[in-house]
Amino acid sequence: MAPALAPKLAEHADNGGLDGTPTASAPPPPGTEEAAEHGNSVLASIFGSKDVSRSVAGDASAQTGIGVDKVKAVLPQLASIAAIAFLTHRASAEGGGGLGGLFASVEKGFGLP
Q: Which domain of life is it from (predicted)?
């Protein structure tokens, strides 16, 4: 799902659309309702409609073989984690490893700064 999330996260971060996203030092704990709410907010912000989110979930399901209902259930959690990792990466001069490194390579692949 990173190829679907990264360009939109970059676009919205550049426009200040993710300013309310918690930092890596105070993220909502993954698996919690707070993280799901944050993730749904991120998805609404970057995709603009539930139809696009459903399409991303459908594509991920088709590519992985994981049921679309399961993908839909974890997408908000992943969006929350991805937004925090993305902004942390942006704030870091190095980009680091892990999710920050993943986003660095995806950004580079899409020609993003």
A: Bacteria
Q: Could you read off the pLDDT of 24-51 as tens digits, one per residue? A: 557 788 889 998 998 898 898 888 888 9
CA distance linking residue 27 with residue 43, whole number of Å:
16
Question: Is the distance from CB of 105 to CB of 2 less than 8 angstroms?
Answer: no
- 91: domain range? 2-109
Report how far residue 80's alpha carbon sits from residue 92's, in angstroms, rounded to the nearest whole number.
18
Three-state SS sequence of the chain: CHHHHHHHHHHHHHCCCCCCCCCCCCCCCCCCHHHHHHHHHHHHHHHCCHHHHHHHHHHHHHHHCCCHHHHHHHHHHHHHHHHHHHHHHHHCCCCCCHHHHHHHHHHHHCCCC
In this prediction, residues 46-58 reach a mean pLDDT of 90
Q: Quick one: which of 47, 46, 4, 2 has its CA closest to 21? A: 46
**How many structural domains does the chain have?**
1
